[in-house]
Amino acid sequence: MAVEGGMKCVKYLMFIFNFIFWICGIALIAIGIYVQVQLNHSILIKNASSSGAPIVIIAVGVVIFFISFFGCCGAVKENYCMVTTFAVILVLIFLVEIAAAIAGYVLKDKVRSAFNEVFVQGMDDYNRTKEATDSIDVAQRDFGCCGANNYTDWTTHGPYKDKIHVPDSCCKNETRNCGTNFNLASIHTNGCVEEIYAKIKSNIGIIAGVALGIAFFEILGIIFACCLMKGIRSGYEVM
């Protein structure tokens, strides 16, 4: 039986929704990759447990990317099973995102502690391994900082213990051996952990806004899918 308004409108809305949802999936993948690159590049966090967060974001983005196509096919074919599966997976994704947000809030202090531990380990390995040396130098240059908590950390960690010496990457105007017998006016004295954490916090608003937008479209998708399921099950022919 043909329906003049209701289910026909829902079917078109499903098309529009899935296109927007597909874009949301791409956005999540991009955010996850950006966060992971920032962590790897600036925080020496490659082996830290907190690096799991961007991986989860990327995984959810990939699932959303493909499930939007699945939902579109379900709407076109008016297949009750496909639309139901789409709705169930969407609900599961929504719950995973809520759990991830709660975990991120609860574990934020542990994440900061992990940053500190990894950075200090990098300082201890400075000049021992190229990876640690390059990563520490990049972080100190990019964030204009020196040491984990402040420049004095270099007196207790790394190759400069008990010396008036910091890496050249601590210098405001970096030149060869500028960190040897330095004066405070010529180097960055603030710690890198605080600078990195502040950078992450400054991006939280953007990430939260994107997440809320995606959650809104997920809820719409669930509502549309449920309406279409009801229509299909009732035996309507969606034109």
What attributes characterize this protein structure?
single chain; mainly alpha; Cd81 Antigen, Extracellular Domain, Chain: A; 2 domains; rod-shaped
Question: Explain this structure to me?
Answer:
The protein is built from six helices and no strands. It is mainly α and 239 residues long. The chain has two domains: 132 residues, no CATH class; 82 residues, Tetraspanin (Cd81 Antigen, Extracellular Domain, Chain: A, Orthogonal Bundle), CATH 1.10.1450.10. The longest helix is centred in the C-terminal third of the chain and has 42 residues. It is rod-shaped, with a radius of gyration of 25 Å. The termini are close together.
How are the SSEs ordered, and which strands pair?
Blueprint lengths: L5 H37 L9 H26 L2 H27 L1 H17 L5 H14 L48 H42 L6
Helix pairs in contact: 1-2, 1-6, 2-3, 3-6
* Number of DSSP helical runs: 6
Number of domains: 2
State the end-to-end CA separation.
Answer: 9 Å
Helical content (DSSP H or I, runs of 4+): 55-70%
Protein name: Tetraspanin
Disulfide bonds: 145-178
GO biological process, one term: protein transport
InterPro entries: Tetraspanin/Peripherin (IPR018499), Tetraspanin_animals (IPR000301), Tetraspanin_CS (IPR018503), Tetraspanin_EC2_sf (IPR008952)
